[in-house]
Write a structure and sequence with these properties.
Elements (H helix, E strand, L loop, with lengths): L3 H16 L4 H8 L3 H7 L23 H11 L9 H10 L7 H10 L29 E10 L6 E9 L5 E7 L4 H15 L7 E4 L8 H10 L2 E4 L9 H11 L12 H17 L11 H6 L2 H18 L13 H5 L17
Parallel strand pairs: 1-4, 4-5
Antiparallel strand pairs: 1-2, 2-3
Helix pairs in contact: 1-2, 5-6, 7-8
Length: 352
């Protein structure tokens, strides 16, 4: 596109030549420009503006202003203000409600300048992990670890032992003690196997390399129960990601106390409430946004079928808003997405 100043100069030379008797076509030929171009430049409306910038396209299936305001108000309500669109949409679908897809809600957020991380913690960064084991059903693979809970005495802590089923993400065992050792862990895994009805040689128990995890009492108990131990690789801090992620969820929960726990009883009371919320109310992104209890009990299949029916009904009602197939709520697709744990070394109970 020729700049406006250069156009003005060329037109001035062209008009001067015509005023002195030159033919317009010949003058344009000498300047290297078609006569029609020079005539178009002389029109009052011939402003050098890129027409592409004036293009305005409003999709025919775009949500109305009222619908977009409704979606924004719902997303900012007390119930959903700390949840992402990827959590909001499945919860609404479970109720039989559909307003918009996740991508549409994100567009609404961008227009309202509300695109941000909706939790107090920093966004997680996904990193690739070596693959070794995959849980295809409950009671096959359990991850456990110990975390500190602060007490009123500086330098002293309470210790939360937490066991999580990898397949369902359900907390299947926990306790808060005033010390950490393998004897207490052995009691907890014994209670877990009895309560869950886990037969010998079915369960793999994964942990990091802490001293309670390598204690002789715990290893002997695992051998007696027929539980295969698995531990993280030495000097690799992310080989037990499921337990670490669970501890982050626990300590960044909105109800986590801002003050230290006054006693071990107070810590146990709070963890009791957290476990009930986590297992029965928390929508986990790793299991298609159902609760761990629903996944553990096998209820997630019916829930996912219901969500699929809601999506299909929404597409049938307004097909112009769907350019492709509805969201994949198939159960098997989620089972294949479960990332396995990393095992290091050989089994501790390998026969010689």
């Amino acid at each position: 596109m020729i700049p406006l100043a250069e156009r003005t100069h060329i037109l001035a030379l062209f008009n001067e030549a015509v005023d002195h008797g030159a033919r317009k076509a010949k003058a344009g030929e000498v300047m290297g420009l078609p006569l029609r171009t020079l005539q178009r430049w002389q029109r009052p409306e011939a402003v050098p503006v890129d027409g592409r910038t004036r293009r305005q396209h409003a999709p025919s299936n775009r949500l109305s202003d009222e619908e977009r305001a409704q979606v924004l108000a719902l997303a900012n309500s007390d119930e959903f203000k700390e949840k992402t669109p990827h959590q909001i949409v499945p919860m609404l679908a479970e109720r039989g409600e559909y307003y918009a897809s996740e991508s549409t809600i994100y567009r609404i957020f961008r227009e309202a300048k509300q695109v941000k991380h909706r939790h107090a913690c920093r966004p997680s960064v996904e990193r690739s992990k070596p693959k070794a084991l995959t849980a295809t059903a409950p009671k096959q693979l359990v991850s456990w670890d110990i975390t500190y809970l602060t007490s009123l005495v500086k330098g002293q802590f309470f210790y939360l032992y937490l066991f999580m089923d990898i397949f369902s993400r359900k907390i299947v065992g926990w306790q808060v003690y005033e010390q950490e050792n393998s004897e207490l862990a052995a009691d907890l895994i014994t209670d877990l196997c009895q309560r869950e009805g886990i037969p010998p040689h079915q369960l793999v128990l994964h942990s990091d390399n802490g001293s309670p995890m390598k204690g002789a009492t715990l290893l002997a108990t695992l051998q007696q129960l027929g539980v295969t131990p698995s531990r993280s690789r030495p000097a690799v801090s992310n080989d037990n990601p499921y337990s670490e992620s669970l501890f982050k969820t626990l300590k960044y929960d909105a109800q986590y106390p801002t003050q230290p726990f006054a006693s071990v009883t107070a810590a146990r009371d709070w963890v009791t409430d957290f476990v009930a919320w986590y297992n029965h109310e928390h929508r986990h992104s790793g299991i298609q946004f159902v609760t761990p209890e629903q996944r553990h009990a096998g209820e997630d299949r019916a829930i996912l079928r219901q969500r699929k029916a809601v999506y299909e009904a929404a597409k049938a009602k307004k097909p112009e808003r769907w350019s492709r197939n509805t969201r994949n709520w198939d159960w098997l697709s989620m089972a294949n997405r479960i990332e396995p744990l990393t095992l290091a070394g050989r089994s501790l109970f390998k026969s010689r």
